[in-house]
Amino acid sequence: GSATSIAEAVVSTQSTGIKVNGVPVDLLEPSALRYKVLEPVLLLGKKRFEGVDIRIRVRGGGATARVYAIRQAISKSLVAYYQKFVDETSKKEVKDILLNYDKAMLVADPRRCEPKKFGGPGARAKYQKSYR
Questions:
Q1: pTM over 0.85
Q2: Integer distance in angstroms from the first to the last C-alpha of the chain?
Q3: In what order do the strands lie in the sheet with 23-24?
Q4: Fewest 10 Å CB contacts: which of 34, 56, 76, 78?
Q5: Cα 124 to Cα 116: distance, rounded to the nearest angstrom
């Protein structure tokens, strides 16, 4: 199936860093995927994240799907924050850096799981038939 994970981000101006479900990003499990979540931060440099506090709620999906949802939420929220509180040019700058690196940072992957039909084990596969 395809990912059904949803992440919502809240950006505020206190500087407490990035938290996911109330846990700091540095303690995120699984540790192998932690860098995926930190990618937007590493790409844009620490100083762009200094004045902001990002709180993220994640629900649904598996470990990897969640990680992708989180990094998308971080990227999108930062771009939105730049649009609202900083100027257009730096917003465009941030956006271009993210998009050049990985489009999935800002654009959701619309693929979803297709429902199973009758007459087969899955959405498209059909049961085998024999002619004796």
A1: no
A2: 35
A3: 6-12, 53-59, 17-20, 23-24
A4: 34
A5: 8
- Look-up of token digits 């024999």: 130
Q: What CA–CA distance (Å, rounded) separates 130 from 47?
A: 66
The confidence score (pLDDT) of residue 1 equals 53
* Residue 93, CB-side half-sphere exposure with 13 Å CA sphere: 10
List pLDDT tens digits, range 13-50. Answer: 776 677 787 777 777 767 777 777 777 777 777 777 77
- For residues 42 and 36, what is the distance between their CA atoms, to the nearest angstrom? 10
If one counts every other C-beta atom within 10 angstroms of the C-beta of residue 129, the result is 5
User: Among 75, 4, 71, which residue's Cα sits nearest to residue 35?
Assistant: 71
Q: Grade residue 2 by pLDDT with cuts at 50, 70 and 90.
A: low
Q: Is the pLDDT assigned to residue 53 strictly greater than 60? A: yes
Q: Which of 42, 36, 43, 72 has the alpha carbon at shortest distance from 56?
A: 72
Structure tokens of 130?
């024999």
